[in-house]
Amino acid sequence: MLDRAEQSAAQDEPGFPHWADPDTGKWTTTPDGDWTGGAFPGIFWLGYRMTGRPRVLALARSWSARLRPRVNLETAFKGFGFYYGAALGSILADDADAACLALEAAESLVGQFDPTLGLIPLGRDAEESGETGSAYSSIDSLQASPLLFWAAQHTGDRRYSECASAHTTRVLQIHSRPDGSIVQSTELDGGTGRVIRHFTHKGLGDSSVWGRAQAWGMLFSAMAFSQGRQDQWLVHGMRAADWWLANVPADGVAYWDFDDPAIPDAPRDTAATSIACAALLRLARLAPDATARNRYRRAAEHSANALVSGYLTRPGPPGEHAGRPAGMLTGGCFNNRADARPHDRITNAELIFGSYYLFECLQILSGTLDAGTL
């Protein structure tokens, strides 16, 4: 997978990898990285931590710096890019330039917090095909929390952790159903903060469970608990994980939406599965009893094995998928909706963030990385 990333960087495409054709490996790119861009330098930060190679560090630093145009965009989703693309450089490589970049983005996120809503709204620059702006939220916006918690730890400035704590608590409160499933999106009243309606930007329907929504809820509640230690966040994360395990197919690889009536012929989503796998590995450290910890670890191993054996490309004999690179995590469903942004409308591809999370999971499972580091 690291070789695949290095080969992609060597192609000198005119932007950040977004998703790749599963047969050719050719990337569809975005000029500034969009919300996904930080996953690419994130792979290199992890790769440097694993190998110590100066060339991999140079790639991490170069691609991290390319995120700078997004620092002050008004979108909660930039938390993803600057946590994995920049803060990870500080965490894993003690890189000062990456730390400065991450702190600039964290400061901007604090400025976007809305005290009436109790959260950081999606923002006018949020990368969605539907409603965005100052009175909309989504479970995906929890991407802001890890960056803010890191900034608090890095600087000692409690403003960051206070913002992260309020944001995490409110987003989980309004997007978590009693049974543990997650609703993706919410419209709020800008004057009072009350919930007007629940809906979805990317799932099948307003009442369905979009696979990545469930996975994001699992991951970021677990990461928030690891960083901020509020028990309610761990409860949310375990409840969401238990729902996932009760509903994911037996092979451990999720469909793009758990309620798609076309199942078993509906698209799978290996990216959602790799996110969930990362969440399960964190819960395998954080759950309060050994039985739960062992169950989450076994489930993570099961899904990771399924992704590697069924969806990760390998060199093949001559004539079989000729020219297809090895190390691609195929089977990612970016968006299966007709109203998706044109460059997101793909149902079987390598998604750069899916590859990041599988690469992270494999390092944790192999013992070369401690999940508590991230």
Number of helices: 12
- Counting helices, strands and paired strands, the structural category is mainly alpha
> Which class in CATH terms?
Mainly Alpha
CATH architecture: Alpha/alpha barrel
The tally of domains stands at 1
Helix content: 40-55%
Shape: globular
The H-and-E topology, N to C, reads as: HEEHHHHEHHEEHHHHEH
Q: Which regions contain 5 or more consecutive residues with pLDDT less than 50?
A: none
> CATH fold name, please?
Glycosyltransferase
What integer is the average pLDDT? Answer: 95
* Rg value: 19 Å
Total beta-strand segments: 6
State the major sheet. 3 strands, antiparallel
- Please indicate the percent range of residues in DSSP E strands (runs of 2 or more): 5-15%
For the biggest β-sheet, the strand order reads 2-1-6
First CA to last CA: what distance? 19 Å
Please give a quick description of this structure.
By secondary structure, the chain is mostly helical. 49% of the residues lie in helices and 6% in strands.
Structural commentary:
The protein is mostly helical and 374 residues long. It has a single domain (2-373), classed as Glycosyltransferase, CATH 1.50.10. It has helices at residues 2-10, 39-51, 54-65, 78-93, 96-111, 144-155, 158-175, 211-228, 231-247, 270-286, 290-311, 352-366, and strands at 16-20, 27-30, 136-138, 185-188, 195-199, 350-351. The strands form two sheets. A three-stranded antiparallel β-sheet has the order 2-1-6. The chain has a three-stranded antiparallel β-sheet with strand order 3-4-5, with helices on one face. The two termini are 19 Å apart.
